[in-house]
Specification:
Layout (H helix, E strand, L loop, with lengths): L2 H32 L2 E2 L8 E2 L3 H9 L1 H32 L6 H9 L6 H23 L11 H29 L3 H9 L4 H12 L1 H16 L3 H6 L11 H10 L4 H28 L5
Helix pairs in contact: 2-12, 3-6, 3-9, 4-6, 6-9, 9-12, 11-12
């Protein structure tokens, strides 16, 4: 690079680098430091206590591990449902239907609605709509949908899938449209059925999009907070409380910012490990055209 190019490089990179350092890097470093302290978020000074917060989480914080297990199960189920539904919707709207563009807009629309609003919408559906149907059709399973841990879990899965499936659809549409038509035509001429084309050609060639889709849904599922707050608020008895809500409550309800920050660090390590491992193994299975 000549001197002029280096100057332009600095002009474009330095502002972004400054924002990254101030908004991301410095808060992470401060968060790690605060995780070794006892601080209520109000007093000016914090007390250094070493690894006591981490020991407390491992030995005594049952609610944190319950929230982790619930979040992990939710993430596994959500990743499967969101990506399967998104992929099927992408196949549907790339079939050349006259209303394909209309369907794309309808399927993507939930992603434009805020998580809190979506939570309140589905809370009304589950508590009022389901209860009305259950009462009139004598189906007890539909009554008190959010007052039970199991149905509350599936309520969160339904909400998350409805919100994100349209977003995943856009990613899979892009991947499907990049598959050469002559490859599909050659397979049809050779007598391959629709199912064989899907399993042997389409899915392997779309695997890079699956890597991206699984990464996005996995990270978003672990970090879910606003939908959890507005739909179940962690109830009943914290049985549907997810990790993000557990950390938030520790900080702002119980004013234990040091312990909350230690939980956040553990949360960061867990999510980073899972997502990076998933990306590594998915990348190894990708097929290039």
């Amino acid at each position: 690079m000549n001197k002029n190019n280096k100057k332009w490089f600095a002009v474009f990179v330095l502002p972004v680098l400054f924002v990254f350092i101030v908004v991301v890097l410095i808060p992470i470093i401060m968060g790690v430091l605060y995780s070794f302290t006892s601080w209520n978020g109000i007093e000016e000074k914090s007390q250094f206590i070493g690894l006591a917060n981490y020991v407390e989480i491992i030995k005594n914080d049952k609610f944190f591990f319950d929230a982790f297990m619930f979040t992990a199960m939710f993430a596994i189920v959500s990743v499967i449902t969101i990506n399967v539904i998104g992929f099927l919707l992408a196949i549907l709207v790339t079939k050349g239907l006259k209303i394909s563009n209309f369907l794309r807009g309808i399927f993507f629309l939930p992603n434009l609605i805020g998580g809190l609003i979506l939570g309140f919408i589905w809370q009304f559906i589950f508590t009022k709509g389901f209860d009305f149907i259950g009462a009139n059709l004598k189906i007890d399973f539909l009554r008190g949908w959010l007052s039970d841990t199991v149905t509350g879990f599936w309520g969160l899965v339904i909400l998350m899938s409805w919100q994100m499936a349209g977003y995943m659809m856009i990613i899979y549409i892009s991947a499907l449209q990049n598959i050469p038509e002559d490859v599909i035509e050659a397979a049809k001429i050779d007598g391959a059925s629709g199912g064989q084309i899907l399993r042997k050609i389409i899915i392997p060639l779309v695997s890079p999009a699956f890597t991206v889709g699984i990464f996005l849904t996995l990270s978003n599922s672990f970090k879910l907070y606003d939908q959890n707050l507005s739909l179940t608020a962690g109830g009943p008895f914290n049985s549907t409380q997810m990790l993000a809500m557990n950390i938030y409550d520790t900080a702002f309800k119980f004013n234990n910012f040091g312990l909350a920050q230690a939980k956040a660090i553990i949360f960061l390590i867990i999510v980073a490990s899972i997502t990076l491992t998933q990306m590594y193994f998915n990348k190894r299975r990708e097929v290039e055209m």
